[in-house]
Specification:
This protein is α/β, with parallel strands linked by helices. The chain contains 18 helices and twelve strands. The strands form two sheets. Strands 2-1-5-4-3-6-7 form a seven-stranded mixed beta sheet, with no helix packed on it. The chain has a five-stranded mixed beta sheet with strand order 10-9-8-11-12. α6 links the parallel β4 and β5.
């Protein structure tokens, strides 16, 4: 009985990527498992009755001929079932070994093809997909097309699972449609959804079709169209895990960048053709400025800068702090007779809480506040900057931009508020919620200095005088193919931060 049970468990643990539950010999075995389970239960009950009798009667209990025959018959029956299931299990392992060998051959073939210079990208595109006629591409109009429609074009392979966010799709759509307007840009996007075939069901099918319907670029007609060997390459070589990536292929099929999404979030279409060399040149010319931080997310920014206003971006999800901070800061601006604009940019991965707070901010007219897509894009741009810098080989000690980005992300990792002030493009000061609120509420202590030096220099000097011996700073980084920095300094005290692993499920 135990051997049969172990055999059944072994069937359920067979690797789904090499053998399907719908195909013999596994399908035959699965059909026999209910019968095997029935005989296991019957045998257990029969044995239990015998054991109960032996314990109750002790030496006086004598097994009848019929009972002995039943146990012998059950033992023979279960032994036969075990032998049959074992034979099916051996066939399953033979098939797995053969399929695994074929997979490795196909993997090496694809690897050689994509690493060998080609005359165009068609050979690579053809190898991505299975040969069955039931699988094909759909163009942006959802019309069936052949693979050669993408021949000799710049192609972004958008790779994700079915949890790609609506915000991500909308932001990428804006870039893609912007590319359509410019004759200097010419690239296509092809969505390659990576799914677990063993758990595929009608629910996932509907989710796939729903995502496919809102994507204005090329898609596969079904996730199973992608060759298993290519999926293996995508995960092992291109480093796809959970977060979407976009692999750029030039018209000749050369991989220009294993993940261009970071580049696209930071610089948009100006980074075309989204090559690693383009990224290098952009970072060489970049500095930590208001424009880099906010990019095109705030349409009023050029006007505010030209009017020499103080611009404050702040975040957090504590409404009491937000009301106190905005009120105190407006009071300081009024006392100094300076122009001030404040913008609430929420918190990462707290969509519902941010939406509720944004509504209250607008209702009470506390400040400007961004909508969902801008909030998502802001924080993802910062994460993209960090990962791009990490790939660029920069450490926090020798890179100001990376240091500032990690400080902003550390602020967001806290449940408390934070704020960053800019005057012009590059004069700035930032602080966590407690420090900046304390400074605003004690403005009378540095008012004279502010009138002499200016608002931001005086606020910086005031913040430097506030000691914070007790703090707990958290920097939460999602798993990403860009890698995690080996060493991170605390945004508050500069000491090296301890490293932990965190598993999180946040449902709002």
């Amino acid at each position: 009985m135990i051997d049969v049970t172990k055999c059944i468990v072994e069937f359920t643990e067979l690797p789904s990527e090499f053998i399907s539950i719908d195909v013999p010999p596994l399908s035959i075995a699965m059909a026999h498992i209910p019968t095997a389970t029935y005989w296991i239960i019957w045998s257990v009950v029969a044995c239990a009755a015998q054991i109960t009798g032996l314990v109750g009667m002790r030496h006086e209990f004598i097994t009848s001929t019929s009972e002995a025959w039943e146990l012998s018959s059950l033992a023979h029956k279960v032994s036969g079932i075990h032998e049959y299931l074992q034979s099916l299990l051996r066939l399953c392992y033979q098939r797995i070994d053969a399929d695994e060998e074929k997979l490795m051959e196909a993997f090496e073939d694809f690897k050689r093809t994509i690493e060998t210079p080609q005359t165009d990208n068609l050979k690579i595109l053809l190898k991505i997909f299975r040969k069955e006629e039931t699988y094909y591409l759909l163009n942006p109009d959802k019309t069936k097309v052949l693979n050669d429609v993408l021949r000799r074009k710049h192609v972004l392979l958008l790779i994700s699972d079915l949890d790609i966010s609506q915000e991500e799709i909308r932001v990428l759509e804006a870039l893609y449609k912007g590319e359509r307007v410019s004759s200097e840009l010419n690239y296509e996007i092809l969505w390659l959804p990576i799914v677990d075939r063993s758990t595929w069901n009608d629910g996932y099918e509907q989710k796939f079709l729903s995502l496919q319907s809102i994507m204005p670029w090329y898609t596969v007609n079904h996730p199973f169209a992608i060759e298993p060997a290519v999926i293996k390459y995508i995960m092992e070589v291109w480093g796809f895990g959970k977060k979407p990536i976009a692999v750029t292929l030039d018209p000749k099929g050369k991989v220009l960048c294993p993940n261009a999404l970071n580049m696209m979030w930071i610089w948009g279409n100006s980074a075309f053709p989204f090559s690693s060399e383009k990224k290098e040149s952009f970072w060489k010319a970049e500095a930590w400025t208001l424009e880099l931080l906010v990019d095109r997310l705030e349409p009023n920014l050029p006007t505010w800068v030209s009017q020499q206003k103080v611009v404050c971006f702040y975040g957090g999800v504590q409404m009491e702090w937000i009301e106190s901070f905005t009120t105190a800061t407006k009071g300081v601006a009024k006392a100094l007779d300076i122009g001030l604009e404040m913008v609430y940019i929420g918190k990462n991965n707290a969509k519902e809480r941010v939406k509720k707070i944004t509504g209250l901010i607008k209702e009470k007219q506390l400040s400007h506040a961004w909508e969902d897509d801008n909030v998502w894009f802001f924080w993802n741009r910062l994460e993209s900057m960090l990962y791009s810098k990490t790939q660029h080989g920069k450490t926090i000690e020798n890179d100001v931009i990376k240091q500032e980005v990690m400080t902003m992300l550390a602020y967001d990792g806290s449940e408390n508020g934070w704020a960053v002030f800019f005057t012009g493009s590059d004069e700035m000061v930032r602080a966590n919620g407690d420090k900046v609120l304390s400074s605003m509420e004690s403005f009378d202590e540095w008012e004279k200095l502010a009138k002499q030096m200016g608002f931001i220099p005086a606020l910086r000097k005031q913040l430097e005088g506030i000691t914070d011996d007790h703090h707990c700073t958290r920097l939460i980084l999602p798993e990403n193919s860009g890698g995690i920095p080996e060493r991170v300094q605390c945004a508050e005290c500069g000491r090296p931060m301890e490293r932990y692993f965190m598993y999180r499920c946040c449902v709002e």
